[in-house]
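Example (one chain per record):
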Amino acid sequence: MKGYVVRGISCLLLLWAGTVLGQSEVEKLVFRNLDESLGLSNSNILSMVRDADGMMWYGTAYGLYRYDGTRIKIFLNTKDSTSISHNNILKMYVGPNDKLWVKNVNGVFDIYNPENEHFSRGISIYSPTYHLASDSVGMLMKDRQNRFWFTHPAKGISIYDEASGETVYVQKTNGKGSLFSNQIAAIAEAPDGLIWVVHRSGVIDLLDPNRLIVTKTLRLPKEEIPASATYEIMIDSDGDAWLFDPERNLGVFRVDGFTHQTEVNQEERGKYWLNNNMVKAIVEAKKGQIWLGTDHGGINVLDKTTGSVTYLNGDNVHDSSMPHNVIYSLYKDNEDIIWVGTHKKGVAYYHQGLLRFSHVRKNFADKNSLPFNDVNAFAEDSLGNLYIGTNGGGLYYHNRKTNTYKHYKHNPDNKNSLTGDVIVDLLLDHKGVLWIGTYLNGLGSFDGKDFTNYQYRPGDPSGIAGPSIWKIFEDSTGKIWIGTLRSGISMLDKDRKEFHNYPAGSAPFFYQ
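Predicted structure:
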């Protein structure tokens, strides 16, 4: 399923045409939202991760969401003991056996089992397997040797080798090469293989991953930091370490990977002048280009080659604005797609060269051009061809290999023709049947040969609720749900060819 989300996604696309993201080279921003309109009912995105099957997970202030490129599924805390233990999701990691580890606001991890979509609350059930130093885990990381490193709030580090099943521990002792403390905030692996261990006090141990001893100890400037902080760290491809505290206005510290000199970067201070000191997330977009997600400053793009900073927010783009200037999370997946989690406006993503837009329109000089310019809806079939619903021109089927269009129009003398020419929505169900929602002409379906029409009949309780169809949706059981214009919701019983209607303003309902 690798790449599945990328092929199917319909969310916020940031399209930069320049090869280096600089203010003078930003040509155009095109926005589409992955938010409540697609089922992301909570748009406060605190964390993101892509699992081994290629699906994206979003941890929000109220619920865990999974996106497979087509649909969003929500997981909430319920009375069921196999549900997540809390709805406020802070962090997520892919752990041993490719299982998703979900950390909530209480610091508890729930582990997801994809076979039955159940969650194990807490990690005690896995203690006999992983032999961790403590069931209380701060974070986890997979290194280049495919070992998993678990930090513990007061017990140092456990290192689990999935291949051998063995676990070793790194903790503070009185011996030479010991950790500075067991109070660890974050860890990261550098390009040279060293593990940077960041303590809550601002001390940084450089740990040899094989001998498991500290080879050098660094310290952030005491005058710049509190006595204890919840640091996070990202090490870029040059080996430079970037540290910040998402809960404090510290800006970002850059520790040179070679000289180990520390540089403080804040508003009007340091090599890189930020527009906001509250840094919430950081990622290396590409070599030498560091993205900082800030609270009310949007994204600060630091270019290490030029020393410049570009601010991506609502004040300096051409056609539109950033979805929100409060960025809570940034994530770069294994296909170099950068995901942006905002405070109130859902998810965005960016990939240089992921998509390039060409303008398809009617051309009277080209018989193979798009026949009708006013387009409302699309649906792609299993062959990769497109059904195109137009605003008054009927339905077109575009064969992408031959670049030809087949046209279907409503014929008032033929009750089995297309139900109407003003098409608002299209849906291909799991059997390949096309469902057609029209303005004022009800619902239709098309199996590739014949049309079946469902017209609105006033006073018929088993008929569709209204004449204008605004949205069509197929649920996981194959039922077709229809959102109408000002007439509520209808659900089609395909076997009996009857509708169950739920008028606007009616009591909440659940259909079994």
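Caption: Residues 202 and 225 are 7 Å apart (CA to CA).
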